[in-house]
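Researcher: Structure for this, please.
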Amino acid sequence: MLVSYNWLKDFLNMEGVDPYALAEKLTRSGVEIASTVHPQAGLSKLVVGHVLTCELMEGTHLHKTTVDVGEEEPKQIICGAPNVAAGQDVIVALPGAHIAGGHKIKKGKLRGEVSDGMICGLQEIGFADALVPPKYADGIFVFHEEGLKPGEEVFKALGMDDYILDFDITPNRADTSSMEGAAYEVGALIDQKPKIEDVVLKEDGPDWTDGFTATADVKVAPKYYLRKVTGVKIGESPLWMQTRLWNAGIRPINNVVDATNYVMLLTGQPMHAYDAAMFKNGRIDVRLAKEGEKLQLLNEKELDLDPEDVVITDGEKAVGLAGVMGGYNSEVTESTTDVILEAAVFDPALIRKAALRHDNRTYASALFEKGINWDNTQKALDACALILRNDANGTVCAGEVKATDEKRDPVVITTTASRTNKLLGTNLSMDEIVKIFHKLNFAITTDGDSYTVTVPNRRWDIFIDADLFEEVGRIYGYDNIKSTHPETGEISGGYTEEETKIRHLRNLAEGQGLTETINYSLTSDEMATTFVKQPLPAVKVNWPLNSSRTTMRQNLICGLLDTIAYNFARKQTELQLFENARVYDKANGEYNEHEHLAAAYVGNAGQSNWQHQDEKIDFYYVKGQLEDLLEMVGISKGIEYRPEVVNGMHPTRTAGIYINDEYVGLIGQIAPVLTVSDKNFAGKEIYVYELNLEKILPLMTKGVKSVPAPKYPAVERDLSILVDKDVTNAAVVSAIEDNAGKYLVKVDVIDVYAGAHLPNGKKSLAYRLTFLNEKDTLTDEVVSKAMTEVQNALEEKVDATIR
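Model: Predicted structure, C-alpha cell format:
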C-alpha cells in the first residue's frame, strides 16, 4: 500500500519525524517499506498559470495563448492540447523549469511564434498514465479549485510535496492496508495515540427501507449493509481527494466512485456504489452464481460465472462479482442521480478464487483475501454517505438495509511476563510490557506475573500468546535484544553420501559444457506423462494457477523444452542444457518423489568458428556425452541401449538405457511431430536423455583417478568379424572383455559395414583391442593367446565369422 506522509498528519503529530528515518524504523519493526518517494524531487519552476486568451493558429492544431504566471507581463505560450481554453487555471513550466525525465524547458519558437514556457499535462510532470483522470488523459490538467493564485508553485496543490511510503505488506500484517491501520502502526513506533475520528451522519431524506429488501447467505457474506443517497450530482471530486487517491496509486474517476475508493483507503473496508435505478425490483440478493450465468464487469470484461462465484443480483440477474468488481449494467454514470452504497464482509477464500479464476484481481479483492476490520463496516458506509452529501449534493435517506450482521468478539489472550522474556531473550519488567501494549492501543490488565490482553478487531492477525510476544519484540526493538548463543549442542554440517554423489554428477555435467536450468515442477496434464516409458497416476493440484501448471511432472524433459522454447524466442538456438531435480507420481495410493537428471542438446556441438567445421549434434554425439559422464562416475560395464517406443520421442531414434538389465532412463530425439507443429522449435532436431538417479547412484564409485603414464608400451591388435545384423555392439564387447584376459585395457570400434559384398542379414564389425602390462613388457605369445581366446568366444557366443 502507498501511504501518504501528509495524510498521516491527520492522525498524528509528525513534526520532527523524518520520512526516510520513519521508513527505516518501520522496516526494522517488521513492516517493510519498499521505497520512499518524494514526487516533487527533480522538478522545478512549475507554477499556476491563468489563461487570459486562447486562439487557434490557422492551419494547425496549435493554440496561441497568453498566460498570467504572476509576473508583470503575461507570457505567450503555444499549446497543442485540445482542451486548452481561456479562463482556465493550468500548470505552467516556466523557461528553465525541469519536468519529468530531466527535461529542461527553454524559450523557443513554434510555427514562427514565440513560446515562452509550456502548459503541462499531468504525465509531463511525472504522473503515470494510469493515474491521470480520464477527462485529462489526452490533454492538459485544469484546476477547478478556488484560491489558487497565478505564479504560486503547483506542488502543494497537486500533492507533490508529499512523501509516499510503499508499505510492502505481508499477509500477516494486512491490518496496515489502510490509513487508519498505518496510523496505528506509526503511532506505536513514535509513541503517539492516533486521532481516529468517529463518523457522525445525519440522515436528511425519507426512509427507503420499507420498499427495499436484501438477502444473503451468512456463510458467503457474514456482514452485508446497504445505504441509499439520492439527488447526487456527478462531477469531479475536490482536488484534495484526487491528490490523496493518486498518491495512493488510484485513478480519480468521479465524485461517487472516488468517495468509495477514498473510504476504502481510509478504513480498509472496500465499498461499492450502484446506480439505484437498476434495481427496479426493489431488492438485492447475494448468492452463488448459477451454472451458465454471465456477467459483464465495469471494465467491460465478459465473464462466464462459476457456481462458486459470489454475485450480487437484482433478484434476477447478476449486477456485480462480490468483492472483486461491480457490473457494467449497474455502473454509476453521468446520468445517475440515486446511488446505493454497499459495505460488506465476504468469505475471503471465495473472493480469492473468483479473482484468480477470472484473472481480475483488484485492490478490493486483495483486501478481502487478506482480511478486513469487521468493526469498520458501519463506519465506512456512513463516511461514504457523508462525503456524497458534502461533495455531490446528495441527500442521505433514512435507514439501512442489513441482509446479514454477524458480530466478531475481540480475542482475549492471557500469558505471563516470564514466558514473554524467556521466548524473546529479554528481561522486561511488567511495567515495560504494559507500556508496549498501550503504545499499540491494546487493553491490558495484570495480576502478578500474569497479564491479559484484549486484542481489538483491527488486529485480526493476533490469536495466540506467541503473536503477543512478537508484538512486544518488534515494538521493543529487535536491535535492542541481546545476542546470545542458542542453548543447544553444536551440530556439524555436511552432505549425505547421496547428496555428495548428486553434486558430483552436476559438476561433471557442467564440465561437459552443459548449462544448468531450474524449471517449474508443475506442468500440463499432457506433458506430465509425455517422455515417460511407463506413466504412473499423475499428481494434480486442486487449485492450479493456470491450465499449463495443473500437474506435477513425471519427467524433466518437459521443463527443458520450455527453456529451449524461451531461448529460441530470443534467437538463442545453440543450446546444451541440463537439470537435476525431482519428479513426482502416485503409486499404490502413495505420493512419491524421485531424483532425476536430464539433458537436452540442439544445434551444433561447438560454437561456429571459421577455424573448424561445424559438427551437428546427433544421437551418437549425445550418447557419447552420456557414456563419458557415466564412465567418469565409474559406470562403464553392463550398459545396453535397446530400442524403445516412448510417447513424445522419435519412433526410430530413441533407446532405453539399461544397466545390468535394469531400465534406468532413456535417450533419443524429440518426436518431429512436436518440434514441427510447435513454432517455438522451428523444426529443429532436439536430442535428450533422462536418468533415474535412484538407479544410478548405488552404482557410482569414487570416479576417475589420475595415474602415472605407463612405463611399458601397449600392444594393439585389430579384429574384423562378420555377424548377424541384430547382434549388438554391447554383446560383442562383452564377449571380448570376458575372454581377453587381464591385460586388455580398451576396446574401440573402428569400422562398421553393411551392404554389397556381404551376405544378406550380415554386417561387418572391426575392433581395435589394446593390451597393456603396467609391470612388464608384453610378449607376442601372451597377446596372441588372448586373441585366440577372444576369437573362440565370439564364434561361440555371437556366431561370428573371423575375417
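Researcher: Any notable elements?
Model: The two ends are 84 Å apart (CA to CA). The first helix runs from residue 5 to 8.
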